[in-house]
């Protein structure tokens, strides 16, 4: 079976490489010539554990190829996955320009039946627009060629995407015909043989499922952050509360860790897009609007704690930051809380020294020379007035507190992920703040 993946961003590249890994012949297409040439050499444009090795292995096997010309791939492909970007417009709605560009290219060059599958996260109703765009181009050519459209949303976690793809909780597929369903069953047979369920449904329901899933997870995060903020006021410990509610099987332990807000390429964009879709159809997503508001406020919580500690006098202070990516195991800084924090610190006249295991290059692209980039975690601490933990990378979990205290000008630690032990730091003589706990007691 031969398939084509259009778009070699995070979703497209992981999808194409993993399909190749299970024995399918895959061609990944992108209009970025430099990106494609680098991929042919085994150089990936993204950081994802295990992906580079998998790309190299399947390129050598001849299972994974790369191209810049979609039209040249259509003659012998059975399925085309559209995995191009859907960035948010100024009003929060998803921009479908690239999705429809792919559809029009397919319509201009298709010769035989092809199943066009949208992998990108798109609003409900996009499949119809894709079908119309393809059909319009076919009619312009004066030919009659049958094709199908389907929706197959992705549920990949950055940092664990390969495992998510190869061992999925579920595979959601929206189809309009028995023929499309049969093709997708054959495509995903290696996964169903290993017991991973494929859930077939209508296309609009599949499109909605993706937005509903991400919005639910975002809601859990914002809810827990709201509870954490109230815990601090009332003298409760959010870590104890989390354990208490997480033991309820109806709630569970996942996505109820308090912190400094969600970021990345999915949750912020998808929440905004679903709110906008509802607005466009005369309905108000009241819960999601609150989720977004809480998250926006939560990204400032570390700054507020620091500001209050120094009673508003931050000018000239040097602040050390551990972690820049929006989560561990990725270099992704899209919508990262670190960016909100850093910009606020710079506005107050602070000097910022930062370290991240993999996101330093991305930070330099986004921030330039506005901050100082440290060679390791301890290097960031020299003469700093406070340490702010932003991303919970494993290497930050057990620092030498003796060394940290010697390097810091002031023994102030503000923990945005609650990974440090309050009693230990107090015993070591630190002034310690975290999320959802009144540490002054």
What is the overall silhouette? elongated
Give the count of structural domains: 3
Instruction: Estimate what percentage of residues fall within beta strands.
Output: 5-15%
Level of helix content? Answer: 40-55%
Structural class: alpha/beta
CATH architecture of the largest domain: 3-Layer(aba) Sandwich
What would CATH call the class of the largest domain?
Alpha Beta
Summed up:
The chain is an alpha/beta fold.
Notes on the structure:
The protein has an 8-stranded mixed beta sheet with strand order 3-2-1-4-5-6-7-8, with helices on both faces. It has a 6-stranded parallel beta sheet with strand order 11-10-9-12-13-14. The N and C termini lie far apart (64 Å). The protein contains 17 helices and 14 strands. The longest helix is centred in the middle third of the chain and has 32 residues, at 203-234. It folds into 3 domains: 2-201, Rossmann fold; 211-297, NAD(P)-binding Rossmann-like Domain (Rossmann fold, 3-Layer(aba) Sandwich); 299-433, Rossmann fold. Helix 17 (422-427) links the parallel strand 13 (412-415) and strand 14. Helices cover 43% and strands 13% of the residues. It has helices spanning 10-21, 33-40, 51-61, 97-109, 126-141, 161-166, 178-187, 189-192, 203-234, 238-246, 267-280, 286-298, 301-309, 337-347, 360-367, 401-407, 422-427, and strands spanning 2-6, 25-29, 64-67, 79-82, 115-118, 148-151, 171-175, 198-201, 318-322, 351-355, 372-373, 386-389, 412-415, 431-433.
């Amino acid at each position: 079976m031969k398939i084509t993946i259009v778009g070699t961003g995070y979703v497209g590249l992981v999808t194409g490489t993993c399909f190749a890994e299970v024995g399918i012949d895959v061609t990944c297409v992108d209009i970025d010539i430099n990106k494609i040439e680098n991929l042919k050499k085994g150089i990936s444009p993204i950081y994802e554990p295990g992906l580079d090795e998998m790309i190299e292995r399947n390129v050598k096997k001849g299972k994974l190829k790369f191209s810049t010309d979609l039209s040249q791939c259509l003659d012998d492909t059975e399925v085309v996955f559209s995995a191009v970007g859907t960035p948010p417009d100024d009003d929060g709605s998803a921009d479908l320009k690239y999705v429809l560009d792919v559809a029009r290219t397919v319509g201009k060059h298709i010769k035989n039946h092809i199943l066009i599958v949208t992998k990108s996260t798109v609003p409900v109703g996009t499949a119809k627009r894709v079908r119309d765009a393809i059909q319009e181009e076919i009619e312009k050519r004066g030919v009659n060629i049958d094709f199908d459209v389907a929706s197959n949303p992705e549920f990949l976690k950055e940092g664990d995407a390969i495992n998510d793809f190869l061992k999925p909780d579920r595979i959601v597929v929206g189809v309009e015909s028995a023929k499309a369903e049969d093709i997708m069953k054959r495509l995903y047979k290696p996964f169903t043989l290993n017991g991973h369920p494929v859930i077939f449904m209508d296309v609009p329901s599949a499109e909605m499922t993706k937005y509903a899933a991400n919005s639910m997870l975002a809601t859990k995060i914002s809810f827990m952050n709201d509870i954490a903020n109230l815990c601090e006021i009332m003298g409760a410990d959010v870590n104890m509360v989390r354990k208490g509610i997480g033991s309820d099987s109806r709630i569970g332990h996942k996505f109820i860790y308090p912190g400094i807000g969600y970021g990345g390429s999915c949750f912020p964009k998808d929440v905004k897009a679903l709110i906008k879709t509802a607005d466009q159809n005369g309905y108000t997503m009241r819960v999601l609007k609150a989720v977004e508001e809480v998250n926006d406020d939560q990204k400032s919580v570390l700054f507020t704690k620091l500001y209050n500690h120094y009673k508003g006098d931050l000018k000239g202070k040097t602040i050390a930051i551990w972690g820049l990516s929006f989560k561990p195991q990725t270099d992704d800084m899209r919508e990262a809380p670190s960016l909100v924090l850093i910009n606020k610190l710079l506005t107050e006249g602070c000097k910022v020294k930062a370290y991240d295991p993999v996101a330093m290059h991305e930070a330099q692209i986004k921030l330039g020379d506005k901050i100082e980039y440290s060679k390791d975690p301890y290097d960031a601490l020299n003469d700093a007035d406070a340490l702010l933990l932003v991303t919970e990378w494993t290497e930050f979990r057990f620092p030498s507190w003796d060394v940290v205290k010697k390097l810091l000008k002031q023994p102030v630690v503000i923990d945005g992920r609650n990974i440090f032990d309050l009693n230990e730091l107090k015993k070591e003589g630190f002034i310690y703040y975290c999320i959802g706990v009144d540490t002054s007691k």
